Protein backbone atom coordinates (compact mmCIF):
# COMPACT_ATOMS: atom_id res chain seq x y z
CA UNK A 1 0.00 0.00 0.00
CA UNK A 2 1.54 3.35 -0.95
CA UNK A 3 2.20 5.67 1.94
CA UNK A 4 -0.23 8.56 1.73
CA UNK A 5 -1.46 11.10 4.23
CA UNK A 6 -5.07 9.99 3.63
CA UNK A 7 -4.15 6.50 4.90
CA UNK A 8 -4.13 7.95 8.42
CA UNK A 9 -7.90 8.46 8.14
CA UNK A 10 -8.57 4.80 7.33
CA UNK A 11 -9.79 2.16 9.78
CA UNK A 12 -8.87 -1.53 9.65
CA UNK A 13 -10.67 -4.35 11.44
CA UNK A 14 -10.43 -8.13 11.61
CA UNK A 15 -12.46 -10.54 9.55
CA UNK A 16 -14.37 -13.14 11.58
CA UNK A 17 -15.46 -16.64 10.60
CA UNK A 18 -18.63 -17.89 12.32
CA UNK A 19 -19.00 -21.67 12.54
CA UNK A 20 -22.57 -22.86 13.05
CA UNK A 21 -21.85 -25.70 15.49
CA UNK A 22 -23.61 -26.46 18.78
CA UNK A 23 -20.66 -28.50 19.97
CA UNK A 24 -18.05 -25.82 19.29
CA UNK A 25 -20.35 -23.07 20.61
CA UNK A 26 -20.92 -24.93 23.87
CA UNK A 27 -17.20 -25.60 24.18
CA UNK A 28 -16.41 -21.93 23.59
CA UNK A 29 -18.78 -20.67 26.29
CA UNK A 30 -17.59 -23.35 28.72
CA UNK A 31 -13.99 -22.29 28.28
CA UNK A 32 -14.89 -18.61 28.51
CA UNK A 33 -16.81 -19.30 31.72
CA UNK A 34 -13.85 -21.14 33.25
CA UNK A 35 -11.52 -18.28 32.27
CA UNK A 36 -13.93 -15.70 33.72
CA UNK A 37 -14.14 -17.66 36.97
CA UNK A 38 -10.33 -17.88 37.15
CA UNK A 39 -9.98 -14.13 36.53
CA UNK A 40 -12.55 -13.28 39.24
CA UNK A 41 -10.92 -15.62 41.78
CA UNK A 42 -7.46 -14.17 41.10
CA UNK A 43 -8.81 -10.62 41.27
CA UNK A 44 -10.47 -11.18 44.66
CA UNK A 45 -7.72 -13.39 46.11
CA UNK A 46 -4.84 -11.07 45.17
CA UNK A 47 -6.90 -7.87 45.46
CA UNK A 48 -5.88 -6.81 41.97
CA UNK A 49 -8.50 -4.06 42.07
CA UNK A 50 -6.49 -2.17 44.70
CA UNK A 51 -3.72 0.38 44.59
CA UNK A 52 -0.87 -0.68 46.90
CA UNK A 53 1.67 1.05 49.08
CA UNK A 54 4.56 -0.38 51.13
CA UNK A 55 5.18 0.16 54.81
CA UNK A 56 7.55 2.64 56.43
CA UNK A 57 8.24 1.72 60.06
CA UNK A 58 10.27 2.26 63.22
CA UNK A 59 10.91 -0.24 66.04
CA UNK A 60 11.91 0.11 69.70
CA UNK A 61 12.35 -2.71 72.21
CA UNK A 62 12.39 -2.75 76.00
CA UNK A 63 13.67 -5.90 77.78
CA UNK A 64 12.75 -6.67 81.38
CA UNK A 65 14.02 -9.35 83.74
CA UNK A 66 16.54 -10.04 86.53
CA UNK A 67 18.88 -13.03 86.91
CA UNK A 68 21.20 -14.24 89.68
CA UNK A 69 24.37 -16.18 88.79
CA UNK A 70 27.13 -17.70 90.88
CA UNK A 71 30.51 -17.39 89.15
CA UNK A 72 33.65 -19.27 90.24
CA UNK A 73 36.16 -17.00 92.01
CA UNK A 74 33.68 -14.12 91.60
CA UNK A 75 30.65 -15.04 93.67
CA UNK A 76 27.03 -14.17 93.19
CA UNK A 77 26.21 -11.54 90.58
CA UNK A 78 22.80 -10.02 89.94
CA UNK A 79 22.17 -9.27 86.28
CA UNK A 80 19.63 -6.62 85.41
CA UNK A 81 18.71 -5.08 82.08
CA UNK A 82 21.79 -2.83 82.09
CA UNK A 83 24.12 -5.80 82.53
CA UNK A 84 22.70 -8.33 80.11
CA UNK A 85 21.59 -5.96 77.30
CA UNK A 86 25.16 -5.36 76.17
CA UNK A 87 26.17 -2.64 73.69
CA UNK A 88 23.81 -1.36 71.02
CA UNK A 89 23.37 -3.90 68.21
CA UNK A 90 22.16 -1.43 65.63
CA UNK A 91 18.79 -0.47 64.26
CA UNK A 92 15.79 -2.68 65.12
CA UNK A 93 17.87 -5.14 67.20
CA UNK A 94 18.47 -5.97 70.87
CA UNK A 95 20.86 -8.37 72.62
CA UNK A 96 20.48 -10.52 75.73
CA UNK A 97 23.48 -12.14 77.45
CA UNK A 98 22.95 -15.83 78.23
CA UNK A 99 26.45 -17.12 79.13
CA UNK A 100 29.85 -15.69 80.17
CA UNK A 101 33.53 -16.56 80.61
CA UNK A 102 35.09 -14.42 83.38
CA UNK A 103 38.78 -13.53 83.72
CA UNK A 104 39.22 -11.53 86.96
CA UNK A 105 41.89 -9.21 88.33
CA UNK A 106 43.67 -8.38 85.11
CA UNK A 107 46.42 -5.78 85.34
CA UNK A 108 48.78 -4.17 82.86
CA UNK A 109 52.01 -6.19 82.91
CA UNK A 110 54.10 -8.90 81.34
CA UNK A 111 53.10 -12.54 81.13
CA UNK A 112 53.51 -15.57 78.83
CA UNK A 113 51.23 -15.68 75.80
CA UNK A 114 48.56 -18.39 75.80
CA UNK A 115 48.83 -21.14 73.14
CA UNK A 116 47.84 -21.51 70.41
CA UNK A 117 47.98 -17.72 70.01
CA UNK A 118 51.48 -17.53 71.51
CA UNK A 119 54.56 -18.91 69.82
CA UNK A 120 56.14 -21.89 71.57
CA UNK A 121 59.81 -21.10 72.04
CA UNK A 122 63.03 -22.54 73.53
CA UNK A 123 65.25 -19.47 73.80
CA UNK A 124 64.88 -15.71 73.63
CA UNK A 125 66.14 -15.83 70.06
CA UNK A 126 62.84 -17.43 69.03
CA UNK A 127 60.90 -14.31 70.08
CA UNK A 128 60.89 -10.95 68.29
CA UNK A 129 60.58 -7.84 70.41
CA UNK A 130 57.65 -5.63 69.38
CA UNK A 131 55.97 -8.33 67.24
CA UNK A 132 52.20 -8.88 67.27
CA UNK A 133 49.50 -10.18 64.98
CA UNK A 134 45.72 -10.22 64.87
CA UNK A 135 45.52 -13.23 67.19
CA UNK A 136 47.90 -11.90 69.84
CA UNK A 137 46.77 -10.74 73.27
CA UNK A 138 49.71 -8.32 73.53
CA UNK A 139 53.09 -7.20 72.16
CA UNK A 140 56.12 -9.53 72.48
CA UNK A 141 58.94 -8.35 74.75
CA UNK A 142 61.56 -10.59 73.14
CA UNK A 143 61.84 -12.95 76.14
CA UNK A 144 60.99 -16.66 76.19
CA UNK A 145 59.38 -17.57 79.52
CA UNK A 146 57.81 -20.61 81.11
CA UNK A 147 54.07 -21.11 80.41
CA UNK A 148 53.52 -24.44 82.20
CA UNK A 149 55.53 -27.46 83.24
CA UNK A 150 56.32 -28.61 79.71
CA UNK A 151 56.10 -25.52 77.51
CA UNK A 152 57.59 -22.08 77.07
CA UNK A 153 56.02 -19.21 75.11
CA UNK A 154 57.05 -15.71 74.16
CA UNK A 155 56.38 -13.12 76.82
CA UNK A 156 53.98 -10.27 75.95
CA UNK A 157 53.00 -6.93 77.42
CA UNK A 158 49.26 -7.22 78.00
CA UNK A 159 46.42 -7.38 80.54
CA UNK A 160 47.56 -10.22 82.74
CA UNK A 161 46.60 -12.94 83.42
CA UNK A 162 45.52 -13.55 79.84
CA UNK A 163 42.12 -15.13 79.18
CA UNK A 164 42.72 -18.87 78.86
CA UNK A 165 39.27 -20.51 78.72
CA UNK A 166 38.05 -21.29 75.22
CA UNK A 167 34.68 -23.03 75.61
CA UNK A 168 31.70 -21.48 77.38
CA UNK A 169 30.32 -23.28 80.45
CA UNK A 170 27.46 -25.76 80.18
CA UNK A 171 24.70 -25.28 81.13
CA UNK A 172 24.54 -21.58 80.36
CA UNK A 173 25.02 -19.36 83.41
CA UNK A 174 22.09 -17.09 82.48
CA UNK A 175 19.70 -19.82 81.41
CA UNK A 176 17.01 -18.02 83.43
CA UNK A 177 16.97 -15.35 80.70
CA UNK A 178 14.41 -17.66 79.10
CA UNK A 179 11.81 -15.98 81.30
CA UNK A 180 12.78 -12.42 80.39
CA UNK A 181 10.19 -10.43 78.48
CA UNK A 182 10.48 -7.80 75.78
CA UNK A 183 8.00 -5.11 74.77
CA UNK A 184 8.27 -4.40 71.03
CA UNK A 185 6.78 -1.12 69.87
CA UNK A 186 6.30 -0.85 66.14
CA UNK A 187 4.97 2.32 64.46
CA UNK A 188 4.08 2.08 60.77
CA UNK A 189 2.93 4.45 58.06
CA UNK A 190 1.69 4.10 54.49
CA UNK A 191 2.63 7.44 52.88
CA UNK A 192 0.41 7.19 49.79
CA UNK A 193 -2.71 6.72 51.91
CA UNK A 194 -1.59 8.93 54.83
CA UNK A 195 -2.41 6.05 57.15
CA UNK A 196 -0.61 5.46 60.47
CA UNK A 197 -0.87 2.68 63.04
CA UNK A 198 1.16 0.89 65.72
CA UNK A 199 1.15 -2.63 67.07
CA UNK A 200 -0.17 -1.38 70.42
CA UNK A 201 -3.75 -1.26 69.21
CA UNK A 202 -6.23 1.45 70.26
CA UNK A 203 -8.37 -1.01 72.23
CA UNK A 204 -5.41 -2.11 74.41
CA UNK A 205 -5.48 -0.58 77.91
CA UNK A 206 -2.70 -0.11 80.44
CA UNK A 207 -4.07 -2.86 82.65
CA UNK A 208 -4.20 -5.24 79.69
CA UNK A 209 -0.56 -4.56 78.80
CA UNK A 210 0.55 -5.26 82.36
CA UNK A 211 -0.86 -8.76 82.35
CA UNK A 212 -0.78 -9.88 78.66
CA UNK A 213 1.85 -12.07 77.07
CA UNK A 214 2.03 -13.18 73.44
CA UNK A 215 0.51 -16.56 72.69
CA UNK A 216 -0.22 -17.57 69.12
CA UNK A 217 -3.44 -19.34 70.05
CA UNK A 218 -4.87 -17.28 72.92
CA UNK A 219 -3.43 -13.77 72.55
CA UNK A 220 -1.72 -13.24 69.19
CA UNK A 221 -1.94 -9.42 69.30
CA UNK A 222 -0.06 -8.78 72.57
CA UNK A 223 3.23 -6.90 71.90
CA UNK A 224 4.96 -8.37 74.98
CA UNK A 225 6.97 -11.53 74.31
CA UNK A 226 8.69 -14.06 76.55
CA UNK A 227 12.18 -14.80 75.19
CA UNK A 228 11.75 -18.54 75.69
CA UNK A 229 8.53 -18.48 73.67
CA UNK A 230 10.23 -16.56 70.86
CA UNK A 231 12.99 -19.18 70.57
CA UNK A 232 10.43 -21.98 70.80
CA UNK A 233 8.36 -20.42 67.99
CA UNK A 234 11.56 -20.44 65.92
CA UNK A 235 11.73 -24.21 66.54
CA UNK A 236 14.87 -23.97 68.69
CA UNK A 237 15.78 -25.02 72.24
CA UNK A 238 16.56 -22.00 74.43
CA UNK A 239 18.86 -23.87 76.86
CA UNK A 240 20.98 -25.23 73.98
CA UNK A 241 21.08 -21.95 72.12
CA UNK A 242 21.97 -20.00 75.29
CA UNK A 243 25.36 -21.78 75.60
CA UNK A 244 27.01 -20.21 72.53
CA UNK A 245 24.36 -17.72 71.42
CA UNK A 246 22.84 -17.05 68.00
CA UNK A 247 20.56 -14.76 66.03
CA UNK A 248 16.74 -14.90 66.05
CA UNK A 249 14.55 -12.98 63.60
CA UNK A 250 11.23 -11.50 64.74
CA UNK A 251 9.12 -10.80 61.66
CA UNK A 252 6.17 -8.40 61.84
CA UNK A 253 3.94 -8.49 58.79
CA UNK A 254 1.26 -5.88 58.08
CA UNK A 255 -1.24 -6.90 55.40
CA UNK A 256 -3.76 -4.07 55.44
CA UNK A 257 -7.02 -3.66 53.57
CA UNK A 258 -8.17 -0.01 53.72
CA UNK A 259 -11.45 -0.46 51.84
CA UNK A 260 -14.46 0.85 53.79
CA UNK A 261 -16.30 -1.78 55.83
CA UNK A 262 -13.61 -4.38 54.93
CA UNK A 263 -10.91 -2.31 56.64
CA UNK A 264 -8.46 -4.54 58.46
CA UNK A 265 -4.91 -3.70 59.55
CA UNK A 266 -3.41 -5.96 62.23
CA UNK A 267 0.15 -7.20 62.71
CA UNK A 268 1.10 -10.86 62.35
CA UNK A 269 4.20 -12.16 64.14
CA UNK A 270 6.49 -14.97 63.04
CA UNK A 271 9.92 -16.13 64.24
CA UNK A 272 12.90 -17.97 62.79
CA UNK A 273 16.59 -18.52 63.44
CA UNK A 274 18.80 -16.51 61.11
CA UNK A 275 22.30 -17.97 61.69
CA UNK A 276 23.21 -21.40 60.36
CA UNK A 277 24.02 -23.45 63.43
CA UNK A 278 24.75 -26.75 61.64
CA UNK A 279 27.15 -25.64 58.92
CA UNK A 280 29.02 -23.36 61.35
CA UNK A 281 29.31 -25.83 64.21
CA UNK A 282 33.13 -25.91 63.96
CA UNK A 283 33.59 -22.44 62.44
CA UNK A 284 33.00 -19.69 65.04
CA UNK A 285 29.51 -20.82 66.13
CA UNK A 286 27.07 -18.61 68.00
CA UNK A 287 27.47 -14.94 68.94
CA UNK A 288 29.73 -13.33 71.58
CA UNK A 289 31.53 -10.13 72.52
CA UNK A 290 33.78 -8.93 75.38
CA UNK A 291 33.36 -6.16 77.91
CA UNK A 292 35.18 -5.27 81.17
CA UNK A 293 34.46 -3.77 84.56
CA UNK A 294 37.29 -1.62 85.89
CA UNK A 295 38.30 -0.88 89.47
CA UNK A 296 41.36 0.41 91.33
CA UNK A 297 43.07 -1.77 93.92
CA UNK A 298 45.78 -0.05 96.04
CA UNK A 299 46.29 2.58 93.38
CA UNK A 300 46.63 0.03 90.59
CA UNK A 301 43.94 -0.21 87.87
CA UNK A 302 42.40 -3.61 87.55
CA UNK A 303 39.61 -5.05 85.42
CA UNK A 304 37.34 -8.07 85.28
CA UNK A 305 36.99 -9.30 81.69
CA UNK A 306 33.70 -10.82 80.58
CA UNK A 307 33.37 -12.81 77.36
CA UNK A 308 29.60 -12.67 76.91
CA UNK A 309 27.61 -15.13 74.81
CA UNK A 310 24.04 -14.27 73.97
CA UNK A 311 21.14 -14.10 71.57
CA UNK A 312 20.57 -11.16 69.26
CA UNK A 313 16.99 -10.49 68.22
CA UNK A 314 16.50 -8.72 64.87
CA UNK A 315 13.05 -7.19 64.35
CA UNK A 316 12.10 -7.10 60.68
CA UNK A 317 8.96 -5.33 59.50
CA UNK A 318 7.21 -6.10 56.21
CA UNK A 319 3.93 -4.71 55.03
CA UNK A 320 1.66 -3.69 52.22
CA UNK A 321 -1.63 -1.81 52.21
CA UNK A 322 -4.25 -1.81 49.50
CA UNK A 323 -7.12 0.51 48.67
CA UNK A 324 -9.68 0.33 45.85
CA UNK A 325 -8.63 2.13 42.66
CA UNK A 326 -10.73 2.24 39.50
CA UNK A 327 -7.55 2.73 37.45
CA UNK A 328 -6.00 -0.49 38.80
CA UNK A 329 -9.25 -2.36 38.14
CA UNK A 330 -9.33 -1.18 34.50
CA UNK A 331 -5.65 -2.12 34.04
CA UNK A 332 -6.26 -5.60 35.48
CA UNK A 333 -9.32 -6.22 33.30
CA UNK A 334 -7.46 -5.04 30.21
CA UNK A 335 -4.48 -7.29 30.96
CA UNK A 336 -6.67 -10.37 31.44
CA UNK A 337 -8.68 -10.01 28.22
CA UNK A 338 -5.86 -11.76 26.41
CA UNK A 339 -6.70 -14.94 28.34
CA UNK A 340 -9.77 -15.37 26.14
CA UNK A 341 -7.51 -16.02 23.15
CA UNK A 342 -6.73 -19.36 24.79
CA UNK A 343 -10.25 -20.47 23.85
CA UNK A 344 -9.64 -19.62 20.19
CA UNK A 345 -6.24 -21.31 20.20
CA UNK A 346 -7.64 -24.48 21.78
CA UNK A 347 -10.67 -24.75 19.46
CA UNK A 348 -8.53 -24.04 16.39
CA UNK A 349 -6.18 -26.79 17.53
CA UNK A 350 -9.13 -29.12 18.14
CA UNK A 351 -10.49 -28.53 14.65
CA UNK A 352 -7.06 -29.25 13.21
CA UNK A 353 -6.83 -32.65 14.94
CA UNK A 354 -8.45 -35.94 13.99
CA UNK A 355 -11.63 -34.97 15.88
CA UNK A 356 -12.91 -33.56 12.58
CA UNK A 357 -12.89 -35.00 9.07
CA UNK A 358 -10.34 -33.92 6.53
CA UNK A 359 -13.00 -32.17 4.44
CA UNK A 360 -14.30 -30.20 7.44
CA UNK A 361 -10.79 -29.14 8.44
CA UNK A 362 -9.97 -28.00 4.92
CA UNK A 363 -13.27 -26.13 4.57
CA UNK A 364 -12.68 -24.30 7.85
CA UNK A 365 -9.10 -23.50 6.89
CA UNK A 366 -10.18 -22.03 3.56
CA UNK A 367 -12.78 -19.83 5.25
CA UNK A 368 -10.47 -18.70 8.05
CA UNK A 369 -7.17 -18.24 6.22
CA UNK A 370 -6.93 -16.12 3.11
CA UNK A 371 -3.67 -16.84 1.32
CA UNK A 372 -2.13 -14.09 -0.78
CA UNK A 373 0.55 -15.28 -3.14
CA UNK A 374 3.66 -13.38 -4.04
CA UNK A 375 3.38 -11.77 -7.49
CA UNK A 376 6.58 -13.57 -8.47
CA UNK A 377 5.02 -16.94 -7.63
CA UNK A 378 2.35 -18.55 -9.81
CA UNK A 379 0.01 -21.17 -8.30
CA UNK A 380 -1.81 -23.47 -10.72
CA UNK A 381 -4.63 -25.97 -10.27
CA UNK A 382 -5.08 -29.07 -12.44
CA UNK A 383 -7.69 -31.81 -12.70
CA UNK A 384 -7.21 -35.37 -13.97
CA UNK A 385 -10.06 -37.44 -15.34
CA UNK A 386 -9.02 -40.47 -13.26
CA UNK A 387 -9.03 -38.50 -9.97
CA UNK A 388 -11.98 -36.94 -8.11
CA UNK A 389 -10.12 -33.97 -6.68
CA UNK A 390 -8.17 -30.91 -7.75
CA UNK A 391 -4.43 -30.54 -7.34
CA UNK A 392 -2.82 -27.21 -6.49
CA UNK A 393 0.80 -26.97 -7.69
CA UNK A 394 3.53 -24.40 -8.12
CA UNK A 395 4.55 -23.41 -11.59
CA UNK A 396 7.89 -24.95 -12.51
CA UNK A 397 10.28 -23.76 -15.19
CA UNK A 398 12.25 -27.03 -15.21
CA UNK A 399 9.92 -29.95 -14.43
CA UNK A 400 6.93 -31.02 -16.50
CA UNK A 401 3.61 -29.88 -15.02
CA UNK A 402 2.49 -33.51 -15.29
CA UNK A 403 5.20 -34.51 -12.78
CA UNK A 404 5.03 -31.59 -10.31
CA UNK A 405 3.96 -32.74 -6.82
CA UNK A 406 0.89 -30.96 -5.41
CA UNK A 407 1.22 -28.57 -2.48
CA UNK A 408 -2.43 -29.25 -1.55
CA UNK A 409 -5.46 -31.24 -2.69
CA UNK A 410 -9.03 -29.87 -2.78
CA UNK A 411 -12.40 -31.46 -3.52
CA UNK A 412 -14.12 -30.39 -6.73
CA UNK A 413 -16.68 -27.61 -6.23
CA UNK A 414 -19.36 -27.90 -8.88
CA UNK A 415 -20.99 -24.79 -10.27
CA UNK A 416 -24.63 -25.90 -9.79
CA UNK A 417 -25.99 -22.93 -11.77
CA UNK A 418 -23.81 -23.76 -14.74
CA UNK A 419 -24.69 -27.45 -14.51
CA UNK A 420 -28.44 -26.78 -14.46
CA UNK A 421 -28.16 -24.45 -17.45
CA UNK A 422 -26.18 -27.00 -19.45
CA UNK A 423 -28.67 -29.77 -18.71
CA UNK A 424 -31.50 -27.52 -19.89
CA UNK A 425 -29.72 -26.63 -23.12
CA UNK A 426 -28.87 -30.26 -23.83
CA UNK A 427 -32.46 -31.39 -23.29
CA UNK A 428 -33.76 -28.63 -25.51
CA UNK A 429 -31.27 -29.39 -28.26
CA UNK A 430 -31.89 -33.13 -28.04
CA UNK A 431 -28.50 -33.80 -29.65
CA UNK A 432 -26.99 -36.20 -27.12
CA UNK A 433 -24.48 -38.50 -28.80
CA UNK A 434 -25.00 -42.16 -27.93
CA UNK A 435 -21.62 -43.29 -29.15
CA UNK A 436 -18.36 -41.65 -28.08
CA UNK A 437 -16.52 -39.82 -30.84
CA UNK A 438 -13.51 -41.47 -32.36
CA UNK A 439 -10.32 -39.51 -31.66
CA UNK A 440 -7.21 -40.98 -33.18
CA UNK A 441 -3.99 -40.97 -31.16
CA UNK A 442 -1.42 -38.47 -32.33
CA UNK A 443 1.73 -39.85 -33.94
CA UNK A 444 4.25 -37.74 -32.01
CA UNK A 445 2.99 -38.52 -28.51
CA UNK A 446 5.40 -37.08 -25.86
CA UNK A 447 6.67 -39.19 -22.93
CA UNK A 448 4.55 -37.33 -20.36
CA UNK A 449 1.30 -38.02 -22.31
CA UNK A 450 -0.70 -40.99 -20.94
CA UNK A 451 -3.84 -40.63 -23.09
CA UNK A 452 -2.11 -40.67 -26.47
CA UNK A 453 -3.72 -37.43 -27.72
CA UNK A 454 -1.35 -34.71 -26.50
CA UNK A 455 1.13 -32.76 -28.62
CA UNK A 456 4.77 -32.06 -27.71
CA UNK A 457 5.70 -28.73 -26.13
CA UNK A 458 8.95 -27.15 -25.02
CA UNK A 459 7.33 -25.26 -22.15
CA UNK A 460 7.10 -27.25 -18.86
CA UNK A 461 3.83 -25.53 -17.86
CA UNK A 462 2.18 -26.83 -21.08
CA UNK A 463 3.27 -30.45 -20.55
CA UNK A 464 0.03 -31.66 -18.96
CA UNK A 465 -2.13 -34.66 -19.84
CA UNK A 466 -5.74 -35.30 -18.86
CA UNK A 467 -4.79 -38.45 -16.93
CA UNK A 468 -2.41 -39.65 -14.22
CA UNK A 469 -2.39 -43.22 -15.49
CA UNK A 470 -2.56 -44.74 -18.98
CA UNK A 471 -6.10 -44.85 -20.30
CA UNK A 472 -8.77 -43.30 -22.47
CA UNK A 473 -8.54 -39.56 -23.30
CA UNK A 474 -11.22 -37.21 -22.02
CA UNK A 475 -11.70 -35.84 -25.54
CA UNK A 476 -13.23 -39.21 -26.47
CA UNK A 477 -16.09 -38.64 -24.03
CA UNK A 478 -19.53 -37.88 -25.53
CA UNK A 479 -19.98 -35.16 -22.89
CA UNK A 480 -16.82 -33.47 -24.15
CA UNK A 481 -18.49 -33.11 -27.50
CA UNK A 482 -21.74 -31.85 -25.98
CA UNK A 483 -20.43 -29.57 -23.20
CA UNK A 484 -17.20 -28.27 -24.74
CA UNK A 485 -17.42 -28.48 -28.53
CA UNK A 486 -21.14 -28.21 -29.29
CA UNK A 487 -21.64 -25.03 -31.35
CA UNK A 488 -25.34 -24.55 -30.38
CA UNK A 489 -24.46 -24.86 -26.73
CA UNK A 490 -21.54 -22.44 -26.98
CA UNK A 491 -23.67 -19.91 -28.85
CA UNK A 492 -26.37 -20.21 -26.18
CA UNK A 493 -23.77 -19.63 -23.48
CA UNK A 494 -22.40 -16.56 -25.25
CA UNK A 495 -25.93 -15.12 -25.62
CA UNK A 496 -26.67 -15.96 -22.01
CA UNK A 497 -23.68 -13.90 -20.88
CA UNK A 498 -24.01 -11.15 -23.46
CA UNK A 499 -27.60 -11.09 -24.82
CA UNK A 500 -26.82 -8.39 -27.40
CA UNK A 501 -23.55 -9.85 -28.70
CA UNK A 502 -23.09 -10.16 -32.45
CA UNK A 503 -22.54 -13.81 -33.49
CA UNK A 504 -22.10 -13.23 -37.22
CA UNK A 505 -19.67 -15.46 -39.05
CA UNK A 506 -16.03 -14.44 -39.03
CA UNK A 507 -12.79 -14.68 -37.12
CA UNK A 508 -14.24 -12.78 -34.17
CA UNK A 509 -17.06 -15.34 -33.79
CA UNK A 510 -14.64 -18.30 -34.00
CA UNK A 511 -12.37 -16.71 -31.35
CA UNK A 512 -15.37 -16.14 -29.08
CA UNK A 513 -16.50 -19.76 -29.50
CA UNK A 514 -12.96 -21.00 -28.87
CA UNK A 515 -12.57 -18.99 -25.66
CA UNK A 516 -16.06 -20.03 -24.55
CA UNK A 517 -15.08 -23.63 -25.14
CA UNK A 518 -12.06 -23.18 -22.86
CA UNK A 519 -14.30 -21.79 -20.14
CA UNK A 520 -16.81 -24.61 -20.58
CA UNK A 521 -14.11 -27.22 -20.03
CA UNK A 522 -12.84 -25.49 -16.90
CA UNK A 523 -16.35 -25.10 -15.47
CA UNK A 524 -17.02 -28.76 -16.20
CA UNK A 525 -13.79 -30.35 -14.91
CA UNK A 526 -12.58 -27.85 -12.27
CA UNK A 527 -15.56 -25.74 -11.29
CA UNK A 528 -14.65 -22.96 -8.86
CA UNK A 529 -10.83 -23.08 -8.56
CA UNK A 530 -9.19 -22.69 -5.13
CA UNK A 531 -8.42 -19.12 -4.09
CA UNK A 532 -5.43 -17.45 -5.75
CA UNK A 533 -4.91 -20.40 -8.13
CA UNK A 534 -5.11 -20.44 -11.94
CA UNK A 535 -6.86 -23.35 -13.70
CA UNK A 536 -4.87 -25.21 -16.37
CA UNK A 537 -6.27 -27.31 -19.22
CA UNK A 538 -4.51 -30.45 -20.46
CA UNK A 539 -2.75 -30.31 -23.83
CA UNK A 540 -5.07 -32.84 -25.50
CA UNK A 541 -8.18 -30.79 -24.69
CA UNK A 542 -6.61 -27.51 -25.80
CA UNK A 543 -5.56 -28.85 -29.19
CA UNK A 544 -8.88 -30.64 -29.71
CA UNK A 545 -10.70 -27.31 -29.17
CA UNK A 546 -8.30 -25.53 -31.52
CA UNK A 547 -8.91 -28.12 -34.18
CA UNK A 548 -12.66 -27.59 -33.85
CA UNK A 549 -12.43 -23.79 -33.82
CA UNK A 550 -9.24 -22.89 -35.65
CA UNK A 551 -7.93 -19.42 -36.27
CA UNK A 552 -7.52 -18.10 -39.80
CA UNK A 553 -3.90 -17.64 -38.83
CA UNK A 554 -3.62 -21.35 -38.22
CA UNK A 555 0.13 -21.50 -38.45
CA UNK A 556 0.55 -18.80 -35.84
CA UNK A 557 -1.94 -20.54 -33.54
CA UNK A 558 -0.23 -23.89 -33.92
CA UNK A 559 3.05 -22.34 -32.74
CA UNK A 560 1.45 -20.26 -29.96
CA UNK A 561 2.10 -21.18 -26.35
CA UNK A 562 -0.86 -22.70 -24.52
CA UNK A 563 -1.66 -19.36 -22.89
CA UNK A 564 -5.48 -19.46 -23.42
CA UNK A 565 -5.74 -22.33 -20.98
CA UNK A 566 -5.06 -19.74 -18.28
CA UNK A 567 -8.28 -17.94 -19.12
CA UNK A 568 -6.35 -15.13 -20.77
CA UNK A 569 -6.50 -12.81 -17.76
CA UNK A 570 -3.57 -14.39 -15.90
CA UNK A 571 -0.86 -13.75 -18.44
CA UNK A 572 1.51 -12.48 -15.73
CA UNK A 573 2.30 -16.14 -14.85
Low-confidence blocks of residues? 555-572
The percent range for helix content is: 25-40%
Helix/strand-derived category reads alpha+beta
Biggest sheet overview: 8 strands, mixed
Compute the separation of the termini in Å. 22 Å
- The 3D shape can be described as elongated
E-strand count: 18
Give the helix tally: 14
Overall mean confidence score, pLDDT = 84
Alpha carbon gyration radius: 51 Å
Percent range for β-strand residues: 25-35%
Domain P2X purinoreceptor 7 intracellular: 381-555
Keywords: Cell membrane, Disulfide bond, Glycoprotein, Ion channel, Ion transport, Ligand-gated ion channel, Membrane, Receptor, Transmembrane, Transmembrane helix, Transport
Family: Belongs to the P2X receptor family.
Pfam families: P2RX7_C, P2X_receptor
List the helices and strands and how they pair.
Layout: H1 22-45, E1 50-54, E2 56-64, E3 67-71, E4 75-79, H2 81-84, E5 93-112, E6 139-146, E7 152-160, E8 181-190, E9 195-198, H3 206-211, E10 224-226, H4 227-233, H5 238-244, E11 246-257, E12 267-273, E13 288-297, E14 300-324, H6 326-336, H7 341-352, H8 358-368, E15 379-383, E16 389-394, E17 408-411, H9 416-429, H10 478-485, H11 487-497, H12 507-525, E18 534-535, H13 539-548, H14 554-559
Parallel strand pairs: 11-14, 15-18
Antiparallel strand pairs: 1-14, 2-8, 3-4, 5-7, 5-14, 6-7, 8-9, 8-10, 11-12, 13-14, 15-16, 16-17
Helix pairs in contact: 10-12, 11-12, 12-13
